[in-house]
């Protein structure tokens, strides 16, 4: 299903990105509409897959996940079986916040959130015991400068 996005939809999406727990009344008031048209637009955008899963954003450091590593992975394996095994290993690990397949010298980059360096080492040891990789480079983030889930609508 294809949905055409107009200025009103963008205003609604911006409000949802700011705080998806807002009431329909609050969103409607902020975008200059009424509740029913806002609800219908949100429903259509959900059905079209424009609006996905709604979650709460947690503070990792407040929960003891003080270390954020960016893990660069090079592999000499590019067969479908290896890739399926690798992707399954990543999906099974809650420490992996993001995983991207890249173009260029690095094959994959992972964003891994753990309590500390020892926890990262346990993650690393488990990963390399499950799948063969050519080279792994871990970069510890010293400071998070910007982190957002908001698209520039």
TrEMBL record:
Presence of the UniProt keyword Metal-binding in the record: no
SMART domains hit by this protein: HTH_ASNC (SM00344)
UniProt KW keywords: DNA-binding, Transcription, Transcription regulation
InterPro entries assigned to the protein according to its UniProt record, in alphabetical order: ArsR-like_HTH, AsnC-type_HTH_dom, Dimeric_a/b-barrel, Tscrpt_reg_AsnC-like, Tscrpt_reg_AsnC/Lrp_C, Tscrpt_reg_HTH_AsnC-type_CS, WH-like_DNA-bd_sf, WH_DNA-bd_sf
UniProt key word Transport: no
Domain HTH asnC-type: 5-66
PANTHER family the UniProt entry points to: DNA-BINDING TRANSCRIPTIONAL ACTIVATOR DECR, LEUCINE-RESPONSIVE REGULATORY PROTEIN
Protein name (database record): Lrp/AsnC family transcriptional regulator
């Amino acid at each position: 299903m294809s949905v055409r996005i107009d200025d009103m939809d963008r205003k609604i999406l911006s409000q949802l990105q700011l705080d998806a727990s807002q009431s329909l009344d609050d969103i409607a008031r902020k975008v200059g509409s009424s509740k029913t048209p806002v609800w219908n637009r949100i429903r259509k955008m959900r059905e079209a897959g424009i609006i996905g899963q709604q979650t709460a954003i947690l503070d990792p450091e407040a929960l003891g996940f003080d270390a954020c590593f960016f893990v660069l992975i090079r592999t000499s394996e590019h067969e479908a079986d290896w890739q399926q095994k690798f992707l399954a290993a990543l999906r099974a690990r809650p420490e992996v916040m993001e995983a991207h397949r890249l173009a260029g010298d690095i094959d994959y980059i992972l964003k891994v959130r753990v309590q500390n360096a020892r926890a990262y080492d346990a993650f690393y040891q488990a990963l390399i015991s499950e799948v063969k990789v050519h080279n792994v480079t871990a970069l510890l983030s010293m400071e998070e400068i910007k982190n957002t889930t908001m698209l520039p609508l």
